[in-house]
Amino acid sequence: xxxxxxxxxxxxxxxxxxxxxxxxxxxxxxxxxxxxxxxxxxxxxxxxxxxxxxxxxxxxxxxxxxxxxxxxxxxxxxxxxxxxxxxxxxxxxxxxxxxxxxxxxxxxxxxxxxxxxxxxxxxxxxxxxxxxxxxxxxxxxxxxxxxxxxxxxxxxxxxxxxxxxxxxxxxxxxxxxxxxxxxxxxxxxxxxxxxxxxxxxxxxxxxxxxxxxxxxxxxxxxxxxxxxxxxxxxxxxxxxxxxxxxxxxxxxx
Length: 253
Hints:
Blueprint: H1 3-24, H2 41-61, H3 83-95, H4 114-135, H5 144-157, E1 176-182, E2 188-194, E3 197-200, E4 211-215, H6 217-224, E5 236-239, H7 241-250
Parallel strand pairs: 1-4
Antiparallel strand pairs: 1-2, 2-3, 4-5
């Protein structure tokens, strides 16, 4: 990301959290969340706020190696009705740690800088904001430019996620390729599955993919996160469907 993008990500964390809080502020905390089976709205809000507070601790410490503990003083309210305000406070605390985003620090993904955590917090918050709105019967929208960056962030970091997404270790192939193509603007991502793993192919623009998935940036993002099925009318697929089956069976994040 460029310095301008850093500022965009910081502002977007605040905006996405505000939308999240607005959606759940008066919601029934026991309402189930379809995007996160087994979770209620209260569970969803607690998770989102906990992640923000955890990332805030990492950013303040500028850790240089994997953390040995995930113990964080969450200051979680006793009443679930107070969770939305607590989530808002979580984002406010996070904002105080968004300094020197180019500073080197440990991250589980590809980018070993503080900015990794801000970007990761952004899309964690955004996807769960969508989860909350869907649970409440609303029709969520996602800014297309932000969604495209979310697709890139997901596909860039997924190869490093085996610790908490063990299925990704099965994403191997004999030089097989999957293209994720955006239909509402610039955006084309080619993933190459090799015998030793998988990764984005930065030189794959002219490659004929073995399988292709086409949708708007927002729908691509939701498909990748398992919030929208690839058989939905808004999504077009072509090529090797068994390869797509393999991808979606092992890419849960």
